[in-house]
UniProtKB/TrEMBL annotation:
This is Cytidylate kinase. It is found in: Cytoplasm. Residues 156-178 are annotated as: Disordered. GO terms for biological process: nucleobase-containing small molecule interconversion; pyrimidine nucleotide metabolic process. It is an enzyme of class 2 (transferase). It catalyses: CMP + ATP = CDP + ADP; dCMP + ATP = dCDP + ADP. The gene is cmk. The lineage of its organism: Bacteria, Pseudomonadati, Rhodothermota, Rhodothermia, Rhodothermales. It comes from Longimonas halophila.
Length: 235
């Protein structure tokens, strides 16, 4: 079973997808981590997406996601673990830029599908989250969700994430709000694979929902899908 959760930054899709996968004994496919890994390569090489060196840099990148013996997701860039290094705001900004490059999206498409196939065969299911997992990456997914929340709530959540990260100084809430607003505009307006709700996705507004409520809502619909009931009929 392949389940996709799309939505804008800060909507709660990543944390929810990770929890749902764990509770269902599925694997969590963090597609954003793949783009952040590419972005990290650009940042470390001091290459911009429009640089003539970009194509050569991309061709030299080898990216994979693996789980260690403890079940923790590890992100690998050219065989080096970069799980923590890809979570800075600088890398996040670059990830939004590189994600708009056709060459990057084309390069990562088979990577995502290969990982999902490998994991679904070993565990029975994969939960993937991102911006276009239900529209482009896995258009034939068994179950699709689109999570959203107000700009204020998404900024608050992202600010809390920064505050909880001991490796990075948290920017002011207003700066986080502006960052998300910019990311929203870029993700929705880009020509290639813009952020949009899949036509066959179940929409979930998480603005006033607790984390537990988000997870339970999706789990309930997964259980309905397992027994052959149309999950969209309840929303």
């Amino acid at each position: 079973m392949i389940i996709t959760i799309d939505g804008p930054a800060g909507a709660g899709k990543s944390s929810t997808a990770r929890a749902v996968a764990e509770r269902q004994s599925f694997r969590y496919l963090d597609t954003g981590a793949l783009y952040r890994a590419v972005a990290l390569a650009f940042v470390e090489a001091e290459v911009t997406p429009t640089d003539e060196k970009a194509e050569a840099l991309l061709s030299d990148c080898t990216i994979d996601l693996q789980f260690d013996d403890a079940g923790t997701l590890r992100v690998l860039l050219n065989d080096a673990e970069v799980t923590d290094a890809i979570r800075t705001s600088e890398v996040g900004d670059m990830a939004s830029q590189v994600a708009a490059l056709p060459a990057v999206r084309e390069a990562l498409l088979p990577v995502q599908r290969q990982i999902a196939t490998r994991w679904s065969q070993s565990t029975g299911g994969v939960v993937a989250d991102g911006r276009d997992t239900g529209t482009v990456v896995f258009p034939q997914a068994d179950l699709k969700f689109f999570m959203d929340a107000s700009l204020e709530e998404r900024a608050r959540r992202r600010h809390e994430e920064y505050q909880s990260d001991p490796n990075e100084e948290a920017p002011p809430l207003e700066a986080v709000r502006d960052e998300i607003r910019r990311r929203d505009a870029h993700d929705r307006e880009r020509a290639l694979a813009p952020l949009r709700r899949p036509d066959d996705a179940v929409s979930i507004d998480t603005t006033s929902m607790t984390f537990e409520e988000q997870v339970e809502a999706i789990e309930a619909l997964i259980e309905r899908a397992k027994v052959g009931t149309d999950p969209s009929s309840s929303h």
